[in-house]
From TrEMBL:
Residues 1-95 form the DNA helicase Pif1-like DEAD-box helicase domain. This is ATP-dependent DNA helicase. Its cofactor is Mg(2+). Its EC number is 5.6.2.3. It catalyses: ATP + H2O = ADP + phosphate + H(+). The lineage of its organism: Eukaryota, Metazoa, Ecdysozoa, Arthropoda, Hexapoda. GO terms for biological process: DNA recombination; DNA repair; telomere maintenance. GO terms for molecular function: 5'-3' DNA helicase activity; ATP binding; ATP hydrolysis activity. InterPro entries: DNA_helicase_pif1-like_DEAD (IPR010285). Belongs to the helicase family. Keywords: ATP-binding, DNA damage, DNA recombination, DNA repair, Helicase, Hydrolase, Nucleotide-binding. Signal peptide: none annotated. It comes from Eumeta variegata (Bagworm moth).
């Protein structure tokens, strides 16, 4: 998610170049993604959101009504899961007053009690199926933070036979002058 000031600057630039406004198509789920501001507070991230910009009053919101991926696959469980996520995202699930938490429906997902059980559910046959790209493409362990998934990844990688390769991504520049030159 871009900082609201970036969108405001783009708006001013387009007005200067075109002597008026231009239509911009944004695609996002504003319930999920906030701008990331290093070493900031949650308030700073919320205040940087486009919804708090003076441009928000000009935004026309369109809502998707069909989960195309679930519809194309004819997967009833994927369609149910999609509907449950929308119900949660739209705030239509009751919140427990004492804890502030919601209760998931019984068929929402498969809960596990340990990392080992999670690994066994997601990649039960990693030793025999590690070369099966289609099988691997249907599996993922998602967690809030990358360092939370490091331990399960390490356990799974130790079961794989053969040479391992790590591909690193870069989330920031080491020298800020390089980013602007």
């Amino acid at each position: 998610m871009a900082h609201k000031r970036a969108m405001e600057a783009l708006n001013r630039t387009l007005k200067d170049l075109r002597f008026g406004g231009a239509m911009i198509l944004l695609s996002a789920d504003f319930r999920q993604t906030l701008p990331i501001i290093p070493r900031s507070t949650a308030d700073n991230e919320i205040n940087a959101c486009l919804k708090l910009s003076n441009l928000w009053r000009y935004v026309k919101k369109l809502h998707l009504t069909i989960n195309t991926r679930a519809a194309l696959l004819n997967d009833i469980s994927a369609e149910d899961f999609s509907e449950q996520l929308l119900t949660i995202g739209n705030g239509q699930v009751p919140v427990d007053e004492s804890s502030g938490l919601i209760s998931f429906p019984q068929n929402f997902c498969k809960f596990v009690s340990s990392k080992d059980e999670l690994i066994n559910k997601v990649v039960p046959n990693i030793i025999t199926d590690q070369k099966n790209n289609e099988w691997l493409s249907e599996r993922a362990i998602l967690m809030r933070k990358n360092n939370d998934v490091d331990d399960p990844n390490y356990i799974i990688q130790n079961d794989i036979i053969g040479a391992l390769h790590s591909y690193k991504s870069i989330d920031c520049v080491t020298n800020e002058d390089d980013a602007t030159s």
